[in-house]
Every structure is written in C-alpha cells, then in structure tokens.
TrEMBL record:
Stretches assigned to the XdhC- CoxI domain: 12-70
The name this protein goes by in its record: Xanthine dehydrogenase
Stretches assigned to the XdhC Rossmann domain: 171-313
Matches recorded under InterPro entries: MoCofactor_Util/Proc, XdhC_CoxI, XdhC_Rossmann_dom
Organism field: Oliverpabstia intestinalis
Domain of life, per lineage: Bacteria
Pfam families reported in the protein's UniProt record: XdhC_C, XdhC_CoxI
Length: 328
C-alpha cells in the first residue's frame, strides 16, 4: 500500500488527476477478491490490478471518464456468462467496485495521502476508510463495528469501505546468505515486514536485501536477549549450518511465533529435531516447525526455494487472517 499511496501523492503533486479503483465486495468465483486496488489516470491504468479481463477493461474505461471529476462512484459487475450477465467472463461471480476520484485540485487528497504514508511507515495497525459517495478517504486507528479485515459499514447516512492494514506480524529471517537475499525482495513485494539477522557482519549489509526493513548482526545463542517475538510473527531459519539452525530453532520454540520454518534436507532437519528432542522438547512442540521449509514444488535453486517459502507464508497469513478463499 505504501507504493500505492506514494504514487497517488506523486501524481497529485504533479497536478495529475487519478482514480483509485477498489473491489469492496466479491461473491462467487472472481479473479481478485475484496481489497484489490488499481490506479487509473485519464490515459489509462498506471498501477495495480483488479483481476484483468473484461472486468478490468470496463473498470478502466469508467475510471478514465471519472478522472478529474469530483464524483465517487460504485458499480456492480456480473462476471458470468448467463442471460443476466454483463461481462461474459467464465468466472461467474459478482463484484462491487468503488471508484474514488483523487482530484489534483482537492487539497484534502494530498493531506489524506500524506497521513496514509505516515501510517504505513509507522508499521502499526490502521484502517483505510473510503467513502462510497461524498467526502475524502481517511485513516483511522480503530473500527469496532462489523467483522473482518474488510468491511462495508454505514456512517452518518452513507456507506463506507474500511480495510485494516499492518495487522500481520514481522518476518525474522535468521541467516543472510543467498537464500535470504532471494527471499527478502519477494516477501517485501508481498507486503511482509522483514528483518535479517546473521552472526557475520558481511551478511547483514542492508544493500544485500532490497526491501528489507532492518538488518542486525547477532549471536545466535543469545537471541532471547535481543528479540521480543509476538504471536503474529514469522521465524524463518536459513542459517549456514545445523549448529546455527539448532541454536535458532531452540530459541524459536520458546516463543509464541505463529510460524517457524527451517530450511534444509530431510536428513539435516531430522538431525536437528533429534538433538532438540534429546534436550527435552516434546514431539508436539517440534511438530510446530515447518521442516523442510516451504511448499513442495520441486525447488532446487535459492530463487526457487524462496518462492516456495513465500508461498507457504502467504498460505499461513491467509489462514490466520481469515482471508483465504475456497475454490469455487
């Protein structure tokens, strides 16, 4: 979202009108669900997607018409192929799309975008609130009405769309080698907050990890003195060897982290598991660990393994936030 806010602010500073297009409700089989964003200017789409195909084509056309106006607009799209369908797409679902016109002449737009950027930088939970009709979007720290991270509510006689951001945890990556260098840019692009830790200073160079929030040179045997892991956090163990893996996994198992993943062959992970079991960790505790880490996709190279790990973290995040959809 930070990239989206910055792009909108840059265009506003350049006196360029844009339209923020958002799926605020989706039912049935749809290519993108609630919370998909796209930015459109008078000459077409410039960022993001709401799913492609005829839905996106029609939404871009509508947004181009609205750019520069003071109007907000909501339209329902039928993605089916039946008698009452509109778009002729094989998906078969329905979506409600909100078009918010970010006029370059409106000072309220600039104020909102600066506030949104500050909220994204802070890294604490916040709500993005988009009005269906009149008014300017705003940032709120808390919403008590309704359920879920994406909600349609009614306030002061008009509907609003509210979405929560930064509700997920941090990803602590232990080990700054080739795998971490491939993994961080992918996770950053997916909206994960990443920190890399290694006991070798040359592997905590910030320049090695595009998109990383923080790096730190640490003693793997003294992590409890450095980190305060929260239940929503992810721990990814990709150190250079089984001894360091064991040190980090020992620490990880004593934390409330929602995800612990350890890289390595089955032989290596079995060795670490047996070592920790001999120290008194129970089978139930050890079963919390994803080892070998990642989803099985036949990955071999660091880049391929990074994709398998990222896919697993997406899956865990979707499960724990209630955002994972079943296939129709």
């Amino acid at each position: 979202m930070k990239k989206l806010y910055q792009l909108l602010l840059d265009r506003w500073n350049q006196k360029t009108d844009t339209v923020l297009v958002t799926i605020v409700e989706g039912n049935g089989s749809v290519p993108r669900t609630t919370g998909a964003y796209m930015v459109v200017a008078k000459n077409g789409r410039i960022y993001g997607t709401i799913g492609g195909g005829n839905l996106e084509y029609q939404a871009v056309k509508k947004a181009m018409e609205l750019a520069g106006t003071a109007a907000h607009y909501v339209e329902n799209f039928d993605l089916g192929t039946g008698e009452n369908s509109e778009l002729g797409m094989v998906c078969g679902g329905r979506v409600k799309v909100l078009f918010y016109s970010a006029c370059a002449q409106d000072p309220g737009v600039g104020e909102f975008l600066k506030e949104a950027l500050a909220a994204a930088d802070e890294g604490k939970p916040y709500w993005l609130v988009l009005p269906f009709s009149e008014g300017t979007p705003r940032i709120r720290r808390e919403i008590t009405e309704g359920r879920g991270h994406c909600r349609i509510l009614e306030e002061n006689g008009q509907k609003i769309y509210a979405e929560e951001f930064c509700y997920d945890g941090r990803v602590y990556i232990f080990g700054g080698g080739h795998l971490a260098q491939e993994l961080v840019p992918v996770l950053s692009h997916l909206g994960f907050w990443c920190m890399v830790l290694d006991d070798r200073e040359e592997y905590t160079d910030h320049a090695l990890f595009p998109g990383v929030q923080e790096t730190k040179t640490v003693d793997f045997t003294a992590l409890s003195q450095i980190l305060e892991v929260k239940p929503e956090d992810y721990l990814v163990v990709v150190t250079r060897g089984h001894r360091c893996d064991a040190d980090v996994e020992r620490f990880a198992l004593r934390t409330p982290a929602s995800y612990i993943g350890v890289v390595g062959s089955k032989r290596k992970t079995r060795y670490v598991r047996e070592k920790l079991a001999s120290e008194g960790f129970t089978e139930e505790e050890l079963d919390q660990v994803y080892a070998p880490i990642g989803i099985e996709i036949g990955s071999e190279t660091p880049a391929e393994i990074a994709i398998s790990i990222a896919a697993q973290l997406i899956q865990v995040r979707a499960d724990k936030t209630g955002m994972r959809r079943k296939k129709e």
